[in-house]
Amino acid sequence: MGQLKRLQPAAEASVLSEDLQTYDLKTVRSPRLVGWLLRAFVWLVDSWLFSPVRAILERANGLPQILGETEVPERPLFSPVHALSDTNLVSRDIGLENSATKAGIAFNTAGVARQHAKHDSQLRWSAAQLSSAYASGAVTPTQVAENILQHVAQSQQSEPAMNNFIAIDTQAVRTQAAQSTIRYQERKVLSALDGVPYAVKDMCDALPYQTTCGTTYMPTLHKAEQDHPMVAAMKACGAILLGKTNMHELGVSPLGLNMHYGITRNPHNPGCFAGGSSSGSAAVVAAGLCPFAIGNDGGGSIRVPAACCGVVGLKPTWGRDCVGGGPKGVTSLVSTGPIAATVADALLMYAVIANAGLGCFGTGLMTPRQRWLTAASLP
Questions:
Q1: Can you give the pTM of this predicted structure?
Q2: Average pLDDT for residues 112-126, to the nearest whole number?
Q3: Among 222, 241, 292, 331, who pairs with 340 as Cys (CB 3.0-4.6 Å)?
């Protein structure tokens, strides 16, 4: 055990001090092992002999000095939530009963009112264009759903298969679409997003599907019994859940490689990765199957695939989303948010799903006041 190092309290530290202006760089030895040397090292790691060797290697690389021989005066912060000095910055209008209201406010805020939404047949349908077409009777949610299901089937028959979805229940999709079509016919729509399709990364619970996290074993450890609060908010608006999108197994890489459900292909170039780990969510949006999808982001899992697929990805401020609603073990690094075709579509989804999970672990910040949302504008 080395000498204990005590850090200066954060309140007394100055960013202008010399200690904080320079890094104490260390040389770390990490030799490359191949062939018989690698096999011998693996054998050593698996044997009881490795314990003293590990201690020597760790101390040579400074790990005990950082982790076990440094005293931090501040108590650990397990959740990145800080009290707001101005309580007027937040509101408490949280709940599924407000989902439709939020959608309507955001719909007009984004400058995409239905009567002004024109659809270009050469472009992909936005949420506003779908809503406008539904309201005018030009197309029905059932027709849109059947078209999507046809394209999904064709994408799986292509070479290579696109592998956008881990699970898609065609009957459930048709049932939702039929219900939405009836609501439009009877002029009883739930919200501006009624009948608009969306997809969910297979890391969030969304009935009638089980949650795999890109694995084959997760459903045996975690049984989805209710919708993730953000999924529940979208359903309350009448949006159509297409299915659970593919992802890098357990979300541990930005590639989107999955040996169980296939590699999610980039719709712009099937020979390229779609990015990860929310690969399927970005791919279905880029392919035009839906205007937005739900993803998760800890170290870029929304932003990376959005960039790779040429769409919009937003990792919300921690606390504006719900950390629960899926398998246990999700850390405070992870936020759940929208991947969308346009900034306006991202705003529409985010307005609905933000703070949908009141009482869920990790919910800290509240939604912006509606007057702010109404006053916002997009270029």
A1: 0.76
A2: 54
A3: 292
**Degrees to nearest 5, angle at CA 132 with 342 and 337:** 35
Q: What share of the chain is helix, strand, coil (3-state, %, to 5)?
A: 40, 10, 50
The predicted structure's pLDDT at residue 82 = 59
With residue 144 as reference, give the H or E element that holds it: helix 141-157
Report the distance separating Cα 379 and Cα 366, nearest Å: 26
Task: Considering only residues 156 and 28, tell me which one the structure prediction assigns the higher pLDDT.
Answer: 156
Buried b / exposed e along 22-56 (16+ C-beta atoms within 10 A): eeeeeeeeeeeeeeeeeeeeeeeeeeeeeeeeeee
| Number of residues that this document lists for the chain | 379
Q: Calculate mean pLDDT across residues 358-363.
A: 48
User: What is the full DSSP assignment across 228-284?
Assistant: -HHHHHHHHTTPEEEEEEP-SGGG--SS---TTT-PPEETTEEEEE--SSSHHHHHH
* pLDDT at residue 252 is higher than 80: yes
As a whole number of angstroms, the distance between CA 116 and CA 36 comes to 69
Q: Kindly tell me if the per-residue pLDDT of 97 is higher than 70.
A: no
Q: Which of 335, 331, 270 is nearest to 303 (CA)?
A: 335
Q: Which amino acid is at 207?
A: L
Q: Is 136 helix (H, G, I), strand (E, B) or coil?
A: helix
Question: Could you identify the residue written with the tokens 């590639």?
Answer: 255
Query: Is the peptide bond preceding residue 160 cis, with omega within 30 degrees of 0?
Result: yes
Q: List, as one string, the DSSP characters of 24-56.
A: -----------HHHHHHHHHHHHSTTHHHHHHH
C-alpha 290/C-alpha 273 separation (Å) is: 20
Round to whole Å and give the CA distance between 295 and 346.
12
Residue 296 DSSP symbol? E
Q: Is the link from the previous residue into 208 a cis peptide, with omega within 30 of 0? A: yes
CA distance 62 to 55: 11
Is the CB of residue 293 less than 8 Å from the CB of residue 200? yes
Q: Which tops the pLDDT comparison, 24 or 134?
A: 134
Q: Which two tokens stand for residue 327?
A: 């398998």
For residue 367, list its beta bridge partners. Answer: 91
Residue type at 347 in one-letter notation: L
Task: Tell me which residues are annotated as active site.
Answer: 201, 277, 301
Q: How far, CA to CA in Å, does 146 sit from each of 142, 152, 172, 368? A: 6, 10, 12, 37
